[in-house]
Design a protein that fits this description.
The protein contains 10 helices and 8 strands.
C-alpha cells in the first residue's frame, strides 16, 4: 500500500497555527513521526492561506525536506503554488495532488502533469461535479488516463482517486467507491488507485472504526494507496495484516518487519 501521510494540511487548525507562526519544530516533528510510522509520501498543503499560500508552502516544504527523505505530495488548489513546490522538491518522485477533468483545472495542471516525472493523482470530477454512480466516475477516470497518456505521461505514473463521500449522506457511497476502483482496475491494471478514506465516516460516531473497515473493503477490491493518518497505529496494523492476507506481502516480510519496529499493535 502507498501511504500518503495527510497530517500537514493547513485546513487543520493546529497546522494553520504552526504555519502562521513559522513553528519549525511542530512541522518537523510531525513530518518525522509520519515518516517513522510508515508514510511513503508526506502530503503538504498551505491552501488555507489565501494571500500567501506560495510563501507558506515553500516554507513548509523546506522544513519537511530538512528532516525526511520521503517524497512529498504537493497539494494545492493553485497551479502557481504547485509548480513552485515541484521546483523545490528534491527527494525522489513527488506526487501532484491533484488534477481533475474540470475544464479550468485541467488546462492549468495538465502541462505540469506531463512535463514533470511526478506521480499524478487524478480525481473523478468534471464540470458537472462528482457523479453519484460508479460508471460515471470510471468514465471520467478513463478520460483523465487516456489524455495524460496521449500527452506523454507514463501510465505507471498515473493514479486515480475514486473520491470517497460520506455514508451518512447516502449508504450506497461506500460501494460506489469500491465499484469505481474495480472499474478503473479492469480498464487500466497499471494505474494506481489512491483515495482519502476519512470522508466515508463523516457525520457518524466511532469514525475510526468505519474508516478501518472501509480500508480493508477497498484493499480487497484493488485499492493501492490511501491518504491517511499514519499515526493511527491500529489502522497501520490492519493495513500490514491485510497486505499479507491478500498475498501482497511475500512470506509476510513487511508485516514481520513492521512488527519488529513496533508499528503493529499486539492486541
Amino acid at each position: 500500500m502507498i501511504i500518503v501521510g495527510e497530517l500537514i494540511n493547513s485546513t487543520r487548525k493546529k497546522i494553520k497555527e504552526a504555519m502562521e507562526k513559522n513553528d519549525s519544530e511542530y512541522i518537523r516533528n510531525l513530518a518525522i513521526k509520519q515518516d517513522e510510522a510508515g508514510a511513503d509520501f508526506i502530503d503538504v498543503n498551505a491552501g488555507a492561506f489565501v494571500y500567501d499560500e506560495i510563501e507558506k508552502l515553500a516554507w513548509a516544504i523546506n522544513e519537511i525536506q530538512d528532516v525526511t527523505k520521503k517524497p512529498l505530495a504537493i497539494d494545492s488548489p493553485r497551479v502557481e503554488a504547485m509548480a513552485m513546490g515541484l521546483k523545490l522538491h528534491k527527494n525522489g518522485k513527488p506526487m501532484i495532488n491533484s488534477i481533475t477533468k474540470e475544464s479550468e483545472r485541467w488546462k492549468q495542471v495538465f502541462p505540469l502533469a506531463v512535463e514533470t516525472p511526478a506521480l499524478v493523482l487524478g480525481l473523478c470530477i468534471d464540470d458537472n461535479g462528482i457523479p453519484d454512480e460508479a460508471d460515471d466516475r470510471v468514465k471520467i477516470a478513463d478520460h483523465i488516463i487516456n489524455d495524460l497518456v496521449k500527452g506523454g505521461k507514463n501510465i505507471q505514473d498515473i493514479a486515480i482517486d475514486p473520491l470517497t463521500t460520506p455514508l451518512s449522506v447516502n449508504t450506497t457511497y461506500g460501494m460506489t467507491v469500491i465499484n469505481t476502483i474495480k472499474g478503473v482496475k479492469k480498464n487500466f491494471p497499471d494505474v494506481k488507485l489512491i483515495t482519502g478514506l476519512s470522508n466515508i465516516s463523516y457525520g457518524l460516531p466511532s469514525r475510526k472504526q468505519v474508516n478501518r473497515a472501509f480500508m480493508v473493503s477497498c484493499m480487497v477490491n484493488g485499492l493501492d494507496g490511501a491518504l491517511i493518518d499514519p499515526l493511527d497505529s491500529v489502522m497501520m496494523s490492519i493495513i500490514f495484516a491485510a497486505e499479507a492476507i491478500l498475498n501482497k506481502d511475500p512470506y509476510c516480510g513487511n508485516f514481520l518487519k513492521a512488527y519488529r519496529k513496533g508499528l503493529v499493535v499486539k492486541e
